Amino acid sequence: MSSETDLYFRQIALGDMANLVYLIGSKSERQCLIVDPAWDIDGLLGQAEEDGMEVVGALATHYHQDHIGGKIFGMEIQGLDYLQEHNPVPVHVNKLEADGTLEVCELSRSDLVEHDPGDVIELGGVRVTLLHTPGHTPGSQCFLVEEPGKPEPGVLVSGDTLFLGSCGRVDLPGSNPEDMYKSIQTTLGRLPDETWLFPGHLYSENAHSTMGEQKQSNPFLRVTTLEQFLGFMGVG
Fold first, then answer.
1. Is there a domain that residue 2 lies in?
2. Is residue 24 domain-resident?
3. Residues 6 or more apart whose Cβ sits within 8 Å of residue 99
4. Which of 59, 60, 211, 230 gets the highest tally of CB atoms within 10 A of its CB?
């Protein structure tokens, strides 16, 4: 990121499931959002405070417990409900993900801001566009972070839709492999090659890439037909 940018951006590895959590905001406004707050809320709030940033919202890519908190595999993961107790903020979710979020976390519907695809959140000179990418869950979303008028490439925070060299699972309740194919090929595959890619898990040697690199190396972006994609996923 250029020193001239207004974008505040931190990638933080947390938890027992190789999660990557993000702080995204505006340096000029001194405000930020937490993407998928889970595992160590105090640590995330502490990092933002150390950086002189006020946490003013949470962005949820999807409702799975390792991303927003709750019980999974015998573990109790700190998440959105803990955040709301200690630093109440609006929680931005895709409208198709709202019910699942409320089932997993002890929140009220008034805590949620339910979004349509393409909605935009702005902080200072930073614009976050919410891209609906169903497949892993019905309301999965990715976040395209840009500074309009600046030459810097956009940043895609892709949650569990697209990883470096792979993509999210489609064998879980609410998953849909055909939707995943469309999300990866149509919504994400059309992003400019120079767009930076930051996934929701560290499942590879590197913690980030570009869409151009992934279009060359990621088999789930390289497929040309739904049949090929389903074959790679072991479905159909």
1. no
2. yes
3. none
4. 60
